[in-house]
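Problem: given the chain below (134 residues), write out its structure.
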Amino acid sequence: MYQQLAHVALLVRDYDEAIAFYTRQLGFRLLADTRLSATRRWVLVAPPGAPAGSALLLAQADDAEQLSRVGNQTGGRVFLFLQTDDFWRDYHAMRARGVRFHEAPREEVYATVAVFEDLYGNLWDLLQPKTPVA
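Solution.
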């Protein structure tokens, strides 16, 4: 049997501003941008080197309730984890592109890690595991 977690939906205020942030500031690739209706699009972005089929689905908020959740889908906890094979390369590149980090990098038993935020305030961990993940 085979199963894979494919996409995680991320509520955004606007498709185009979200695409710009994820591709320019985080260096993600735009995998799909397909118009589904006058107001809906199928927008997938993924970090470089992500396994095929693994992506963020950028979902533009449809109503006031969804809009109220943009930037706070997890009640202020870290929401997403961006794993890298070179923490310092990516940390310095992201800072140079204006990504806001909430803390200095720290060494944990499991990884080198630092919390950053996306353009809406969602919290992410940038992390490089201490042992390679299979």
